[in-house]
Amino acid sequence: MSKFALMxxxxxxxxxxxxxxxxxxxxxxxxxHLVTDKRVTRYGGAFPAREIHVVPAxxxxxxxxxxxxxxxxxxxxxxxxxWGILRRIDPDAVVGFGGYPCFPPFLAASxxxxxxxxxxxxxxxxxxxxxxxxxxxxxxxxxxxxxxxQRYRLKKVVTGNPVRDRVISAAxxxxxxIDPRGEVRLLVFGxxxxxxxxxxxxxxxxxxxxxxxxxxxxxxQQAREEDLERVTDRYRAARVNVELAAxxxxxPERIARSHLVIGRAGASTVAELTVIGRPAILVxxxxxxxxxxxxxxxxxxxxxxxxxxDQATLSPQSLATQLHDLLSAPExxxxxxxxxxxxxxxxxxxxxxxxxxxxxxGTS
Length: 364
Prior knowledge:
By secondary structure, the chain is an alpha/beta fold. The protein has helices at about 10-25, 40-45, 65-90, 105-110, 125-130, 165-170, 195-205, 210-215, 230-235, 250-255, 265-275, 290-305, 315-325, 330-340, 350-360, and strands at about 5, 30-35, 50-55, 95, 115-120, 140, 155-160, 185-190, 215-220, 240-245, 260-265, 280, 305-310.
């Protein structure tokens, strides 16, 4: 049995692949510790770790010298705290999942001489991972072509992005094409940074769809708590069958039951859609310095499994037209579902677990 410290920021995008790896390493009989930041209380309650360790972290801002100095002091404090934690638990290897909360503990592990694997979920190597790559023994990539990772070709191993056990289970559900006279199931979710935009756009777009198709729609949509009432009212006025919630615990199963998904293009979303094999309209989060979600969406679009829609040019009218065209072409959606599943990597967690075990044994 080996002991692993997994390091991930306390949001779903970083914690979900860490959770998947923890589940797999637990099955293999290893001991797991999670090192993360204070946001873990929202997502990490059921994380299968012996202990969860919270370490101070911060995102440096070079535009503001005062904030940059404060962030630097916080990071130094985080390295010191992580040093003490790692000395106590004495892991055989560490696996980092990116984000600035991963920086202090991964750096501390390197200073202690603990072997480290760094995992990148996106098609662009994140800024924290770029800063940490020199300290890693191996880089695990979700995409064969990852921007900014070319210089590390001797360290790179393509593993894919691990997905949770319930995603693997949901992937057993075959895609059922739309019955020309049956219901049409549309799933809409966008996470904390996307739900507002979809609450504004999607109900208005659906209200513009021709009534015969609109009456067949069964919409499941994630919306922020403060938006639930107005979104409900808009769907009621359009006479659309809808289920709304701020969070769906069973999202993988809902993906599996859908004919079409509208969502962001975060790494976990893309991984789950491709492992389960469902067509999607992907709207990358705008404003990102690295445009990582756009790179993710382009990868799936090129495979034929999704359609990229830029938020800046998306309107209720254009979305209504696209929805009508896609939902009126069952064979087109079924083909896209096959294309999405063809690029999914359901064995990603096994590949990453193998890599972690190699690191623990001191091999490469």
